Structures are given as C-alpha cells and as structure tokens.
Amino acid sequence: MSAPDGQTRKKYELIINKKPFEWPNQLISGADILKLAGSPTDWIVNEIIDGPGDDPEVGPSQEVDLDPKAEPKGTKRFTTRKPKTNPG
Predict the structure, then answer these.
(1) What range does the domain containing 54 cover?
(2) Residue 37, phi then psi, degrees to nearest 5
(3) Residues paired with residue 65 on neighbouring β-strands, in sequence order
(4) Taking the model in full, what pTM does it have?
C-alpha cells in the first residue's frame, strides 16, 4: 500500500497476547488493541514493560506510541484480560 505522497507507508509492529500484529499508524488506542486481539470491549489492556513493577493499564481512549525508538524501546507488547471483579 502506498501513501498519498508516493512513499511506502510504514507499518508498526506490536505483540498482543504473544501474537504479532501490524498497525498502519504510529499511535494505537487501548480500544484498537482490544479489537485487534478479538477481546471484548470491557476487557483491560496492559502494556508489558520489562523489569520490576506492575504493567501499566492502557485505557480505551489512551494512545501508545508504537515507534520502536519510543520508550520502552523495541516492539511494544500488550496483554488483554477480563476486568477484576471486586468480591461483594
């Protein structure tokens, strides 16, 4: 696919639930990650970050920069999961 200026449009790589995907834009929203993964819209997206600490949640309208040079460097990795239920 070519961009309007005649140059080849870059695709950005990402990994969701250990499966590789390509995305046509540098930014991707949490809602788009859920769609790509085939997960229900009420599920939670976490970006996997190496090292200690929790992996941050990505909200439905929050965008993540997929450029490999953006922090954290490299291919961005995500997981989707059911929301936690609070015991009643």
Answers:
(1) 12-81
(2) -75, -15
(3) 27
(4) 0.85
